Amino acid sequence: MIIFYWIFAMFLLVIITLLTYRRFVQQAVLKRSVPRHSPHGISTVKTVTIGGIEQAVLIQAHDSSKPVLLLLHGGPGMPAPGVSFRGVDYAYATTTFELMKHYVLVFWDQRGTGRSFHTDIPSDTMNLEQFVSDANELVDHLRNRFHQEKIYLAGLSWGTVIGLTLASRYPEKFHAYAAMAQIVNWSESDQICYDWNLHQAKEKGNRKATSELVDMGCPPYRDVKTWLTLRKWNFMQGAFVYEDEHIKAPILKQYPKTLLSSPDYSIRDVLRIFTKTKNSYTDQMVLDFLKIDFAESVPVVSIPVYFFHGRHDHAVPGLSTKRYYDKLIAPKGKHLVWLENSAHMFYPNDARIVERCLIQMSSITQDVAQNHEENSNLVM
């Protein structure tokens, strides 16, 4: 009995020590997130009612008068980057510390994710059109809050589905659109992913992966279970992260650390990320994925477009993105940047390249707008 109490006391001491250390780290992150050298800086997490439910938004900037940049996270169900990235520089798609000097940077935990998770969200609202509607509401909220007619928009992976849809439907609301791992045709991407995974499994002698992939057959998939099985093997076989003898990206290890050290996430919030992500997927969502073919639905984008893609991305194959980019009609300009050391999640040095390009995006579009205004005045 004494041994039992001793073990329990030691266990309790360890828990208290870990929670105390977590609190210390959270305070350090919070302190680091406060913009310095500017009376107009902002670092805050706000709750906004969007689509009838409360959803969380992180806003960070050295100067709140700068243009707004909204970055839509991937998933669905994986808020990376999201609200938990307050005070974090490396945010998978881009780094942020320099970016915040040029933009009001906004991260959003989408419906059913992170701080925007609620047990009473109707499952029938977990569909593509609802996510697009939520994002459009948030865009209007940001335009009103910061008194800006237009904002900048960016998306990562799943976020590019929402982002490109918004950019094509409401070009009057955006200066430009940036896509990190743009999804073009989900069914085509799934087929390319399936072929790659089956090849990898056979080449490495992975019997379990080979068996599951053969049993599930080729895409398209119309149910959540099969759709997630392909994602599982994508993850297990390295489709998301590229490494070689020279590149050792600490990407996957950083995500749990970021979540746990977030001053805005409770332990329950963190656990939900890993246990409730499946709630973001419904059979209707999977059927919505099958309808995505931007080559057909969005052949023209009337605002400047920037594509960033990892050369080794096997989760969202770059072949589809390149084909789309080549055919895309973009009167205001289009740009494609290949990130040579990255897969689906961008290697930190490549993420810094994205950051520099996003900063240039602001400068270029603002100059174009100014020249247009000056030319218009001359004509008048």
Q: What does it look like?
A:
With 380 residues, the chain is an alpha/beta fold. The chain has a single domain, classed as 3-Layer(aba) Sandwich (Rossmann fold). The protein has 12 helices and 8 strands. It has helices at residues 2-33, 128-145, 158-169, 186-204, 207-216, 224-236, 251-261, 267-275, 283-290, 294-297, 318-327, 348-379, and strands spanning 42-50, 53-61, 68-72, 104-108, 151-156, 174-180, 305-310, 334-339. Strands 1-2-4-3-5-6-7-8 form an 8-stranded mixed β-sheet, sandwiched between helices. It is globular, with a radius of gyration of 22 Å. It starts with a helix and ends with a helix. The model is unreliable at 372-380 (pLDDT under 50). The chain crosses the membrane at residues 6-24. Pfam families: Abhydrolase_1. InterPro entries: AB_hydrolase, AB_hydrolase_1, AB_hydrolase_fold. Residues 67-347 form the AB hydrolase-1 domain. This is Alpha/beta hydrolase.
What's the gist of this structure?
By secondary structure, the chain is an alpha/beta fold. Helices cover 47% and strands 14% of the residues.
Strand coverage percent: 5-15%
The CATH topology turns out to be Rossmann fold
Count of helical stretches: 12
- The CATH homologous superfamily is called Alpha/Beta hydrolase fold, catalytic domain
| Unreliable stretches covering 5 or more consecutive residues | 372-380
End-to-end separation in angstroms reads 92 Å
User: If strands are numbered along the chain, what order do they take across the biggest sheet?
Assistant: 1-2-4-3-5-6-7-8
Broad structural category: alpha/beta
Largest sheet: 8 strands, mixed
Shape: globular
Compute the number of structural domains. 1
CATH classification, class level: Alpha Beta
Q: What is the CA-based Rg, rounded? A: 22 Å
Oligomer category: single chain
Domain AB hydrolase-1: 67-347
Pfam families: Abhydrolase_1
GO molecular function: hydrolase activity
Keywords: Hydrolase, Membrane, Plasmid, Transmembrane, Transmembrane helix
